[in-house]
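User: I'm putting together a teaching handout on how sequence relates to shape, and I'd like one worked example. Could you take tRNA (cytosine(72)-C(5))-methyltransferase from Thermofilum adornatum, show the sequence you're using, and then write out its predicted structure as C-alpha cells right after it?

Assistant: Happy to. First the sequence, then the C-alpha cells directly below it.
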Amino acid sequence: MSSTVFREDIIAYLARYLGRKYAEKLLESVTTPGTRYFFRVNTLKTKPEDLLHELRSQGVNVYQHAHVPEALFVPVEGPFEIRRLDKVVYVDKHTAESVYVGANVFAPGVYKVENAEKGDYVSVISPNGILVAEGILEMEPDEIFSKRRGLAVRVTRSVYKAQSLRDTSYFLSGHIYHQSLPSMVAVRLLDPKPGETILDMCSSPGGKSTHAAQLMENTGEIIAVDRSKSKVDIVLENAKRLGINIIKGVVYDSRYISEVLGKESVDAVILDPPCSALGVRPKLYYDRSYQDIVKLANYQRQFIREAVNVLRRGGKLLYTTCTFSPLENELNVVHAFSDFRLKPVPISFPNIKTPLLGIPGLQFDPHLHDTPGFFISILVKK
C-alpha cells in the first residue's frame, strides 16, 4: 500500500538512508493507526491512578503506561468494513484521517455532498476515494456550506475506533488532554523545573506547553509563540481549560523571536517546527515530494539558529519532529552542533532506538514501537 500512498521519490529518499525494505515497512505502518490511543492526565487537577480507577469503574477499557505515569491509553479496535452507500459526504484529507479512527465530521471538513439530505445515513469518503466511515447527516447540505460550522455527520461506524473521551466531563473540565506518547516522553526528558522560563517556538495546539506547565507545577513562565492569532488562541484556550495560568501567548514569527524576548533570555526552548509529518498516523495519502522535504529541513534550521540566540548558556533545546526523515532529524542535529553552539546530550527511553549516525536522541518508528513516527533530541547551549 505504501507505493500507492507515497510518491516514489519519498520512498527512494528514505531507502537511501534506511534501506528499501525498512523504508517500505515504515511507510506501510503509517497507513493505519496504532493499537493504542493516548491521552495525558492533568496532574494539576487529579492523580493518574485516581482517574484510571474512576474511568475503569465506568466501564472504560483504559490502561496506564509503565514509564510515563500521566499517560493513559485506550485500545484502538478495527479494521471494520464500511459500506459504499448511494448517499455520500466527501471530506478533506485531514478530516478523513480523523474520521478513519472514529471522529465525527464537522462542517469545515466537508467539500461535497451527493444525493443526501439531513437525517440520511451516508458514507464518508476521502478525496482519493477511500471509505472511512458511515453516519447520519445532521445538517442540510446548504447549511453545511453556508454556515461552515457545526456537526455535519454523526459517525456511527468507522474503519477503526477508539473510545472517545472528548465529549466527557473529564475533557471539558480539563482533567485530560489528548496527546501522543512520544510527545509526552519528549517533555519528560526535557525535565522543566518550577520557576523556569520556557519558550515554545511553534506552540499550537499547546500539548508540550501545557505538559511542561504540569511538570513545573504551574510555577514559572512559558512563552507560547505561533504565527497566527488563531493558533495562539487555541493554546490559551487549552491552557484555560486545564487550569494553567503561566502560559503567555505571543503572535510572532519565532524565527525572529529574539526581537521580542532579547538574547539569552530563556532557560529552555521547545522546538517542534513545521515538518514533513511522515510519522503522523493514519495516512490515507501523502502528496509532498522529496524537494518539499529539502525545503522544510532548511526552514527548520532557521528556528534552530534563533533558539540558540534566546537560550541562556547551559540552557536546553528540545528538538522534536513527527517524522522519520533524516534530513529533518539527524542531519539537522549535526548542523546544530557543527554550526551553532549546541551539544547533543544522551537521552534514553525503554525499548526505543537511537537515531542514525550515532546521534544522541530517540527515534520512534511506528512498525517497531506502535506509536507515531517521532524524533527527539536535546541539545545544550555551550
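A couple of points you could highlight for students: The mean pLDDT is 97. Residues 225 and 250 are 5 Å apart (CA to CA).
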